[in-house]
Amino acid sequence: MNNLWNDQEAAGFKSDPLKLRVYTSRLLGREPDLVLHGGGNTSVKVRETNAFGEEEELLYVKGSGWDLASIEAGGFAPVKMDALLKMARLKELSDAKMVSLQRAAMTDPSAPNPSVEAILHAIIPFQFVDHTHADAVVAVSNTPDGEKRIREIYGPNVLVVPYVMPGFILARKVFEMTRDLDWARAEGMVLLHHGIFTFDNDAKASYEKMIRLVSKAEDYLKTHSAVVAVSANARAKEDLPELARLRRAVARKRGTAVLASQIARPDHVQFSNLPHMEKIAARGCLTPDHIIRTKRVPMIIKDDPLKAVESFAGEYQKYFDRNHKPGQVCLDPAPRWAVAPERGSFIFGADVKELRVISDITDHTIRAVQQAEMLGEWKALPEKDLFEMEYWELEQAKLKKAQSPPLFQGKVVMVTGAASGIGKACVEEFARLCAAVSAVDMDPKISSLFKKDTVLGIAADLTDPAQVKAAVEETVRNFGGLDIVVSNAGIFPPSETIAGMKPETWEKSLRVNLTSHQYLLTEAVPYLKEGLEPAVIVVGSKNVPAPGPGVSAYSVAKAGLTQLARVAALELAASGIRVNIVHPNQVFDTAIWTPEVLEKRAKHYGTTVEEYKKSNLLKTEITSFDVARLVCVMAGPVFAKTTGAQIPIDGGNDRVI
């Protein structure tokens, strides 16, 4: 375990204990072998003068919802120490009541809820307290003789606490165990199946104790040959249509749209091919905290993925029936991750962030599981203990407060012509509404144009069938499927009369404005058939119902595109795929409408540029964002029972009307 402490960096924080607490918390958070997303917690005890001039001792403890890797001072909740210590002396206290009392004891009502470990931090009599879920420590403790091994590693100066539920029960357990403890001799504390604490009155000393103690566990694994060697030759089979079907089945069990991804790296493939993989994967999760993210066990996929989903859901219901108490509400029975021989792992999440969290947890889980097996046997907590964590009263309370997910959360959208204008606006609007978006354009800048991890930029020439196929497959590979296609790519060729038209003008317009869309539909439809409430929105033009002279190459291609979309609506309705068309006009914030072009067109009509931009019946300007908002509405539930429609967005055009 690397020691990341830097005296120069730390020097600027030494006069402020809270800033120093932030610094060392981030050091811990930067090491994923110590803590993963939302895991672990830290605290610092300080004396402050309140508004009445009274000095009081406060515990600044990590707030709920914050990650140690990025925590700020505002992520720590200030709680009165005397209240926490009084709670520790109570014989019984429900966790819901504990949260309420902790909240009432805070000196800043705008701060986040204190960690459920706040009482435990309070009873440890040192200024700085660090708590992590170090992989090496958990791997050693999750064996049949884990306690013996932990004591062998650390000796008498590290307190070993048998597993009990986090929250008040754990705090009370430690309170009772340490009544007569000489804390001055204690180097740290290991919570079996859970993690490790270190503490000191000096921030650096507490941090370095954590590094030293975790390193001892890592060294123990090495000396006992419990190190996982990954073969770079492990290769995964890929079946993207199967991935799309699997995602759809999981989403139906979860009751909401999800994203999916295959983890095909050698470590996951190697784990999936272990002869006893199914046996060890079914024993439980790495730490109880992970069950909220990954459920107790992964789904095992053998031959039929859809059958595996049904089997997992059925077993989950039995698990709930075996363990639940009156009043508990069964969570959705959908898996969060799966293991499939020769294919590695599959993960399922409501959004990109959840996918990343589950991916990280599974990475660490499969390694620690194998390490524990090498020590003798991987042994997770009993099912009942894990159930109690998954159905903790605090987690059940969250169900009652849960709100409907954002409109497109878990949906996968592909937008073509996405580097500018209407396409770019569509990407931004779908992303704002929490979709996972594949943004496709022939402009190479598309790969880095959007800075959100929910947007995948793909450079592709849509007039090349092979590149279209690759773009669709890359979308499915990253997000698990395809639900919505915004077929927008297009060009506006130079104005030429029919008699004076260059052959290349006609051919290029048909190739880009019509044929490329047919290529896209050909590749996208098989995945849309496995999509969630699938829809296609084709971006047409006012020139379809109201063409003008000199633009036949554009008007004919857009008319053909509209006819293609109408036929698609007829063909795809039986598969539940809606196909609708939007006809924009005079959208001036696009690349083709340069200031020079606008001046020229306004002069041609004898108006100012501003008058020309509003030359419609409503005297209003149409922007790319206006079109994007309409496209999103057409992709959503408002248009759930509409297909084959052609919707203008032009401010009212007298020739169209």
Plain-language structure description:
The structure is a single chain. The mean pLDDT is 94. Helices cover 43% and strands 14% of the residues. It is built from 25 helices and 18 strands. The strands form 3 sheets. A 7-stranded mixed sheet has the order 3-2-1-4-7-6-5, sandwiched between helices. The protein has a 7-stranded parallel sheet with strand order 14-13-12-15-16-17-18, sandwiched between helices. With 657 residues, it is of the alpha/beta class. Helix 6 (135-141) packs across helix 15 (352-375) and helix 21 runs parallel beside helix 22.
Looking at this protein, list some descriptive labels.
single chain, 657 residues, alpha/beta, seven-stranded mixed β-sheet, seven-stranded parallel β-sheet, 18 strands
Number of strands: 18
* DSSP summary: helix tally: 25
User: What does the overall shape look like?
Assistant: elongated
Low-confidence stretches: none
Instruction: Strand order, main sheet: write it out.
Output: 3-2-1-4-7-6-5
C-alpha termini separation: 72 Å
From the alpha carbons, calculate the radius of gyration and give it in angstroms. Answer: 30 Å
The computed structural class is alpha/beta
Strand content: 5-15%
Helix content: 40-55%
pLDDT averaged over residues: 94
Largest sheet: 7 strands, mixed
